[in-house]
Design goal:
The relative contact order is 0.11. It contains 10 helices and no strands. It is mainly α and about 200 residues long.
Length: about 200
């Protein structure tokens, strides 16, 4: 009964390589986690471009939340992608959203120069946010690599069947002891009638 009760909490958590940062929450595939970060970043860029014609607090919050959520929700086996994605996400998502929805210069005279400025300015403004998000994702990813090791849950399991095996040899040893005592008793019983010390003197008399 004790062994059954000890093994019941184990199935509550997902396998180490399949879980998210929480043991009881199944992780997302790598591509799904990257899409979440991309969607949050694109939404922040779109809102700020229409609001202030640049990158502001909404972009910073969405970008940071998307990167952290991706590295926390992804499966343990797919951590590498979300860990290294913040710089790539800023370099790909921000220019893409600016080119699609931004109001870069489209006149014939300075169209190319205005386009480059409209793409480069958000990248420069978003660099501090990118550095902060990268530091947080690296810290979370390294912590998950260290704490969520596949071998971390294996040592407790072989220790559990030990108590069930311990009582096995005890009845065998206890079963052998009465046999030894019976043998000793048999020898004493056989020698009792033949080795009577009082009869030989009376017979001689």
């Amino acid at each position: 009964m004790t062994t059954r009760q000890a093994t019941r909490p184990a199935p509550a958590g997902w396998p180490v390589l399949e879980r998210s940062i929480l043991s009881n929450v199944l992780g997302l595939p790598g591509y799904a986690a990257i899409l979440i970060a991309f969607g949050f970043t694109g939404l922040g860029v779109f809102i700020d471009l229409n609001r202030i014609n640049g990158l502001g607090s909404i972009f910073k919050g969405c970008y940071f939340a998307g990167c952290v959520l991706a590295v926390a929700w992804v499966k343990r086996r797919a951590l590498f992608g979300p860990i290294v994605q913040p710089p790539l996400l800023l370099a790909i998502a921000v220019p893409g959203v600016v080119m699609l929805f931004g109001g870069g210069g489209t006149s014939s005279g300075g169209g190319l120069a205005d386009h480059l400025v409209s793409i480069g300015a958000p990248l420069l403004n978003g660099f501090p946010t990118m550095a902060t998000a990268t530091a947080f994702t690296l810290a979370i990813g390294i912590a998950r690599y260290v704490l969520q090791r596949p071998g971390a849950t294996l040592p407790p399991r072989p220790g559990r069947p030990g108590p069930t095996d311990a009582p096995g040899p005890r009845p065998a040893a206890s079963g052998r002891r009465p046999r030894l005592s019976s043998r000793r008793g048999g020898h004493s019983g056989v020698g009792a009638p033949t080795g009577g010390p009082d009869r030989p003197p009376s017979a001689r008399r």
